[in-house]
Write a structure and sequence with these properties.
Distance between the termini of chain B: 25 Å
Oligomer: heterodimer
Helix content of chain A: over 70%
Number of strands of chain B: 10
CATH superfamily of the largest domain in chain A: MetI-like
CATH topology of chain B: Rossmann fold
Strand order of the largest sheet of chain B: 6-7-8-3-9-10
Number of domains of chain B: 1
CATH architecture of the largest domain in chain A: Orthogonal Bundle
């Protein structure tokens, strides 16, 4: 935020009064307490984990549960070994690709479907009951059926990923569009809006917050689902790899450090994905930045 | 029964509108023997009973009455949000709704300003104001935005034009909302308790801004309120409605010349008019309260 020029003018002439100087972005970043608390919390957590894992070696007594976990220093060492290997990055690429493909298809089909359910009674009467029957089925329960339906394992995984996001997106869009304040619709109608104007200028922007809520939740679910689907389908002949398979094969190979590397990788991937959605949300909904 | 409703004594006091102060030539509303019966699940609820009211072109007509008495039902009928059961409503001699056509068409000649504000939160004040002309295609987008900016500036909101409704005070938002209505050049402004839940100070600023706007535009106003000081201060006439079903109970003529300002609030004339209206409203409020007690018993 730029300082208002008149503020300076009003404050500056007073003798002995400190004039607040404009600070650079870096200075502001360094003075951000939220940022520092976050850094301290993460560093503190890693230290705690390290100490607990090393306790047995240092004092001869194993702390229950966390004592069995490999210490972060070992995990880091293993990670550094893995980092240059193309296989690790391929796992990243494969999982991310599957997540975004399933997620994108779910958005492309789910948003219009949800809006249609919201605005058209006939459409809702026909499609809502079967939708509600299919919705409670967990995406992973679809895995065997998906393997039978689809010719390749890759398609099965994408399909299951799609399902994970689809139901959440539709239910959010439907709920969002149906809960738009009636005053907005009436105000628009009273100013002469046509049906198409109502849809484009009122219902669509009014539903955007719910679309992004659905996207954020859906993105989380797709990461869960893709990992599980990869573990189940395994590194089959057609569709190999992915972070899920990476974790599973590390577990089979007995490398707990590598399992943790996989887990943290997913954490980072999920964080990056939801940050991207949040960023996109703030670009598309400037009026929501105030809250 | 509605047929017998016309014979009810005291029903349908048809008031003659006072001569408008300025030369307003449009926006005369004629409400003739309007009855509205809501029929949810077969339970007839009569909201308005044989109500007649003539509102002259350019008149500020204040509607007061107990909560739930059917004020908003009348407004909704004029706006075309709800149908009427019997009677007719005319705007400048043209039928809005009647026996053949119980639901009026919605149109930008009758713009509504809502109770809690209905600026679109996803549009800036400027985009909000430009909305009407853009969707009606009476102006191009650039032209509409330019006109909107001019009108906002006229209302003292030039600095706020690029802000979203969530960023401005409720008073500014409400002023912008009235500008958004006026840009459509409506014949009638339908205001449903627009200044409810505002503090007294903001309210008085709003009143002066509205009076100033009225002196400029002379637009007919159908203004619902609970606040009798507000009603007398702003209105040419104050129509007191009975408790449900609504009929006109009393009409207080406010023959205070315009332009008016806050000094009026201290005058003897003003206080007498307020107490006159208060007497009528109080009687109905007690009836409404007792009816509520009976329903609960």
């Amino acid at each position: 935020m730029a300082e208002h020029p008149t503020v300076h003018a009003a404050v500056a002439p007073g003798p002995g009064r400190a004039v607040p100087l404009r600070r650079t972005r870096l200075q502001k970043l360094l003075e951000n307490t939220t940022l520092w608390r976050g850094i301290v919390a993460i560093v503190g957590f890693i230290l705690f984990w390290e100490v607990c894992s090393q306790w047995k070696g240092w004092f001869g007594y194993q702390i229950p549960w966390i004592g069995k976990v490999a210490p972060p220093s070992d995990v880091m060492a293993v990670w550094m070994d893995i980092l240059p290997q193309p296989g690790y990055w391929e796992s990243w690429y494969l999982s991310t690709f599957r997540v975004f493909l399933g997620f994108a298809i779910a958005q492309v089909i789910g948003i219009p479907f949800g809006l249609a359910l919201a605005v058209n009674k006939y459409f809702r009467d026909v499609f809502f009951p079967p939708f509600e029957v299919l919705r409670p089925i967990p995406p992973l329960a679809w895995v065997p059926a998906a393997i039978i339906f689809w010719p390749t394992t890759e398609l099965s995984i994408t399909f299951v990923t799609f399902l994970g996001a689809f139901f959440t997106i539709v239910i959010n869009v439907l709920g969002g569009a149906r809960s738009i304040d009636g005053r907005y619709l009436r105000a628009a109608q009273s100013m002469g809006a046509s049906q198409w104007d109502l849809f484009r200028r009122i219902i669509l922007p009014g539903t955007l917050p719910s679309i992004f809520t659905g996207a954020a939740v859906g993105m989380g679910i797709t990461w869960e689902v893709v990992l599980a689907a990869e573990m189940i389908s395994g590194g089959g002949q057609q569709a190999g790899g992915g972070l899920g398979f990476f974790i599973w094969s590390s577990f089979m190979g007995g490398s707990i450090e590598q399992v943790i590397v996989g887990m943290i990788s997913i954490g980072i991937a999920g964080y990056l994905s939801s940050s991207a959605i949040r960023y996109l949300g703030s670009v598309c909904m400037p009026w929501r930045r105030l809250f | 029964m509605p047929e017998s409703a016309t014979e009810t004594p005291g029903a349908g006091i048809t008031a003659q509108a006072p001569a408008p102060a300025a030369k307003a030539t449009r926006g005369a509303i004629s409400i003739r023997n309007v009855t509205k019966i809501y029929d949810p699940e077969g339970v007839n609820v009569m909201a308005v009973d044989d109500c007649s009211l003539e509102i002259a072109a350019g008149e500020v007509c204040m509607i007061v009455g107990p909560s739930g008495c059917g004020k908003t039902t009348l407004l909704n009928a004029i706006a075309g949000f709800h149908s009427i059961t019997f009677g007719e409503i005319y705007l400048d001699g043209q039928l809005l709704c009647g026996p053949e056509k119980p639901l009026a068409d919605q149109g930008a000649d009758r713009v509504v300003v809502f109770q809690n504000g209905a600026l679109f939160p996803w549009k800036t004040l400027l985009q909000n104001v430009a909305y009407g002309p853009i969707v009606q295609e009476t102006m191009g987008k650039a032209e509409a935005l330019e006109k909107a900016a001019d009108m906002l500036a006229e209302a003292g909101l030039a600095d706020m034009a690029k802000k979203f409704p969530g960023e401005v005070s409720s008073g500014m938002a409400r002023r912008a909302e009235i500008v958004r209505a006026l840009i459509n050049d409506p014949k009638v402004l339908l205001l449903d308790e627009p200044y409810r839940a505002m503090d007294a100070l903001t309210k008085s600023i709003m009143h002066e801004a509205l009076l100033e706007m009225y002196d400029r535009t002379k637009v007919t106003m159908f203004f619902i309120t609970h606040d009798l000081e507000e009603a007398i201060f702003l209105g040419d006439r104050v129509v007191v409605l009975t408790t449900r079903p609504a009929k006109t109970k009393k009409i207080v003529d406010v023959k205070i010349p315009r332009p008016r300002d806050y000094r009026l609030l201290g005058s003897e004339e003003f206080r007498l008019l307020v107490s006159e209206a208060k007497g009528a409203v109080h009687e109905e409020a007690i009836k409404a309260f007792e009816a509520g007690e009976r329903e609960l018993a």
